[in-house]
Amino acid sequence: LVQSGAVQGYVRTSSLLFGSAAVERAQTVCANGTQDAKTNEQIQAEEATKRSEAEVKLLAALIYCEAGNQPYDGKVAVGSVVINRMNSSRYPNTLEGVIYQRGQFTPARSGKLARILSSGRIPASCYDAAQDAMAGAKPLGNVLFFNTGYGNYKLGDHYFS
Questions:
Q1: Worst-scoring range by mean pLDDT, 12-26, 63-77, 96-110?
Q2: Is 0.90 topped by the overall pTM?
Q3: How far, in Å, CA of 128 to CA of 117, rounded?
Q4: Distance from chain centroid for Cα 49
Q5: CB neighbours (10 Å) of residue 150?
Q6: 157 φ/ψ angles, rounded to the nearest 5 degrees
Q7: CB proximity list for 95: less than 8 A, separation 6 or greater
Q8: Distance between CA 68 and CA 58 in Å, rounded?
Q9: Which residues contact 107 (CB under 8 A, 6 or more apart)?
Q10: Does the structure show a pLDDT above 70 at 69?
Q11: How do residues 19-40 score in pLDDT, each as one tens digit?
């Protein structure tokens, strides 16, 4: 009988290894080392960190595609448009949902965003701008749109409204 916490059960004798066979199997299975057990909270926190890092990268890549040649405030403003949309009932409430929403961001539709993401060549200033936008920076308030032709505010080459 084998017991682990509240779980009890049996193991087939043919599944057991002893001595050098057990050591060899452990070295194969645990080639990257072993880890201590983790609580569900620790696992969820690690997954949230990975999601957060992926979201920062996605937003940074979009900022690079849309405003890579703009001043820093313009980069943050483009990032804040995405965040403002997430907080608006008019748009999806996830970063991916907003960025990949049909007809919204040309680089997502054209494949340029995917190429930038896969290349990993995203300038640090775009990462910084993404982190600032995600932290709540809003250089132009609650703007939901930007383009190169018209709007209420002009920042760099973009107009925002």
A1: 12-26
A2: no
A3: 16
A4: 9
A5: 9
A6: -90, 0
A7: 55, 58, 59, 82, 86
A8: 14
A9: 62, 65, 66, 113, 116
A10: yes
A11: 887 778 777 777 666 666 677 7
